[in-house]
Amino acid sequence: MLRGFIIAGLVALGILFALCAGVVAWVKFSGFDGADIAKMMIPTPNREELYPDAPPMPAKVAATAEELLAEYEAFLTAEAPAALAALQPGLDDVAIERLETEHAFRLPDDLRALYRWRNGAKEGAGPHAFADGRFLPLEAAIEQRRVFKAQMEEVVKENPKLTDTFEGWLSHRYPWIAVIADEAGDGMFFDPTRKADEGAVFHCFAEDGYVFYPSWTNYLAQQVELAKGKLLQNGQLGVEFTEKRYAEADAVQRRFGAPAQ
């Protein structure tokens, strides 16, 4: 049901915004207030459907992030060496703390471990090291977040009467840090405004909704389990899910994370 709500919502929102743009253009010549008309045309979003609370999640795995990253690196070395080579050297704690202070957030320890291991890959640098998309450098993820919020604020500034409408549809994404994401904006995120048990770590996919994890360690354990089960392969874009074994991969995912209800 959540999948249907999200797909329908995104399609309807695109159509409505297009209609509203036409209305706003038309009213310039008619004397009517286009913003008021547009506001009436765009439905009020249901926040629980757009960004639900996390359901009960599996327990946090016992292995450390460092242990799991060593196992995953062994998989990359053997199966996807070009993807491993495309990753940048990791950040030290001083660099991470500087970014945290400058941008007013705090990474959990296991996500810090990920950035100490490697600091993502620059855009176009090479094949992906994770099946869920490109592992973004921390600085790039922060900048992406800043640009997205700035663009939305500019739209609101130009259409002040639509502030509540735009904020209702999009503001829940403002704090998100995209750790691993594809070009469509789907992937693994960290929300520094949520606690771990509230769903701070999650996978967001427009067609299927959310999967919440109790920790980044669980996500890393999932990747290691997928690799051991031959459910990951080296493909054209880098590491990808093994073709025709998606149901098995989904079953592994549900052992480490919990889909939104």
Structural overview:
The protein is of the alpha+beta class. It folds into two domains: 1-43; 55-259, SMI1/KNR4-like. It is built from eleven helices and eight strands. It has helices at 2-30, 34-41, 47-50, 65-79, 81-86, 93-103, 109-117, 138-158, 163-170, 216-228, 246-256; strands spanning 134-135, 177-181, 187-190, 201-205, 209-213, 232-235, 238-241, 258-259. The strands form two sheets. A six-stranded antiparallel sheet has the order 1-2-3-4-5-8. Strands 6-7 form a two-stranded antiparallel sheet. The longest helix is centred in the N-terminal third of the chain and has 29 residues, at 2-30. Residues 1-13 have low confidence and may be disordered.
Radius of gyration using CA atoms only = 20 Å
Q: How many domains, in number, for the residues?
A: 2
Low-confidence stretches: 1-13
Strand order of the largest sheet: 1-2-3-4-5-8
CATH architecture of the largest domain: 3-Layer(aba) Sandwich
- How much of the sequence lies in strands comes to 5-15%
For this structure, what is the CATH class of the largest domain? Alpha Beta
Q: Name the overall outline.
A: globular
- Which fold does the CATH topology of the largest domain refer to? SMI1/KNR4-like
Give the N-terminus to C-terminus distance in angstroms. Answer: 9 Å
- Count the strands? 8
Chain-averaged pLDDT: 85
Biggest beta sheet summary: 6 strands, antiparallel
Helix content: 40-55%
- The ordered H/E elements are HHHHHHHEHHEEEEHEEHE
Topology, element by element:
Blueprint: H1 2-30, H2 34-41, H3 47-50, H4 65-79, H5 81-86, H6 93-103, H7 109-117, E1 134-135, H8 138-158, H9 163-170, E2 177-181, E3 187-190, E4 201-205, E5 209-213, H10 216-228, E6 232-235, E7 238-241, H11 246-256, E8 258-259
Helix pairs in contact: 1-2, 4-10, 8-9, 10-11
